[in-house]
Specification:
It is built from six helices and nine strands; from the N terminus they run βαβαβαβαβαββαββ. By secondary structure, the protein is an alpha/beta fold. The protein starts with a strand and ends with a strand. It binds glycinamide ribonucleotide.
């Protein structure tokens, strides 16, 4: 059984999509070992408790990044986490955190990276006038929204879109893409060569 640790800062809809995919059997042999938030009032923590999952608040306010991250790493280790999934976790990870889980931390970002890293990616893409938008699941490194890309999903920007409708359609893609990327990574049938994520043939 693969133990997942989910890190959130807010509503947690990607966390719920992952939980739903596990229940539906589309992420085989996986379970959510713990949900951690750096924001004590994050709605996603309540959603985790309602599902009977361990939900831990580790408030990051006023704490040095390295100190806070050491506490998160301890918590993940206590729960024997194998793969860390950032799901709307709005904090850059410290180098020690990244090194604690090499190629074992995933993030989802609501743009086709490397375009529009950082906050409000959907609004950035809409304001730029792109005609294709989407989301990216990538391994986390020490730079913002930067690590090796595992999977991307693209959608057209419609003439009727505003930033809100675009963000909502991207979010639907995220809910499909993240469970799929997790299942692929957990299968272990990949190698990373430079910046390239390459899947091996199925046996
Ligand atoms: C998602 O759109 C996710 O891609 C984004 O925050 C939202 C969280 O929603 N993450 C980032 O922008 C990270 N750079 P959720 O809490 O409902 O999953």
């Amino acid at each position: 059984m693969h133990n997942l640790g989910i890190l959130i800062s807010g509503r947690g809809s990607n966390f719920l999509a992952i939980a739903g995919a596990i229940d539906a059997g589309t992420i085989p042999s996986a379970r959510i070992a713990v949900v951690v938030s750096n924001v004590p009032g994050a709605p996603g923590l309540d959603a985790a408790r309602q599902r009977g999952l361990p939900a831990v608040a580790l408030d990051s306010r006023g704490r040095k990044r390295a100190e806070h991250d050491a506490g998160v790493v301890d918590c993940l280790r206590q729960h024997h986490v194998e793969l860390v999934c950032l799901a709307g976790y709005m904090r850059l990870l410290s180098p020690d955190f990244v090194r604690a889980f090499p190629h074992r931390i995933l993030n989802i970002h609501p743009s086709l990276l490397p375009a529009f890293p950082g906050l409000d990616a959907q609004q950035q893409a809409f304001d730029y006038g792109v005609q294709v938008a989407g989301c990216t699941v990538h391994f986390v490194d020490e730079e913002l929204d930067h690590g090796v890309i595992v999977l991307q999903r693209a959608i057209p920007v419609l003439p009727t879109d505003d930033a809100r409708t675009l963000a909502s359609r991207i979010l639907n893609e995220e809910h499909q893409a993240y469970p799929e990327a997790i299942a692929r990574v957990l299968s272990g049938r990949f190698q990373v060569v430079g910046r390239r994520y390459m899947e091996s043939a199925r046996p």
